[in-house]
Design goal:
By secondary structure, this protein is of the alpha+beta class. 29% of the residues lie in helices and 16% in strands.
Length: 146
């Protein structure tokens, strides 16, 4: 209980100090008197120190886009969506006309798996069915090429 009383006392003291500072601020004379009394010394407050110029903030620079491979360029061209994105694109070493990865388009903002059969100009997107799983099997090295 004593701890609460002490905290309450500190809060009251802090409020009184802030109130005195605010009252002193508003009571400070705004200009020098027009006619000073004889023998009186007029003390004028010094000009406020100039505030330093704000330091310009450096905005983070976005990393430069990575150059696209010819396969990625062909895949994006087949989608005809300027906002389409690809990630984790892998081209089969033994069948370079086959690429697999994930894509995202303006109409479908979620990354979805895809298979690109370049020689057939076919882009298959994962729709969650068993048919796509059969198509995606060609992404594994050594699988027969359709």
């Amino acid at each position: 209980m004593e701890g609460r009383n002490m905290v309450r006392t500190y809060c009251i003291v802090a409020i009184l100090v802030v109130a005195a500072a605010v009252a002193g601020f508003f009571a400070w004379p705004r200009s020098a008197p027009v006619a000073a009394d004889a023998g009186a010394v007029v003390v004028r407050p010094a000009d406020a120190a100039p505030t330093p110029a704000p330091v310009p903030m450096v905005e983070p620079v976005a990393p430069a886009p990575q150059p696209r491979s010819a396969v990625e360029t062909a895949i994006l061209a087949s989608m005809e969506d300027p906002r389409a994105e690809l990630r984790d694109v892998v081209v089969r070493r033994d069948a370079p006309q086959i690429a697999c990865g994930e894509k995202r388009t303006a109409r479908d903002p979620v990354f979805r798996r895809f298979v690109w059969l370049g020689h057939l100009k076919m882009l298959a997107t994962d729709d969650g069915t068993k048919d796509f799983a059969n198509i995606a099997a060609v992404c594994r090295e050594g699988q027969p090429v359709p």
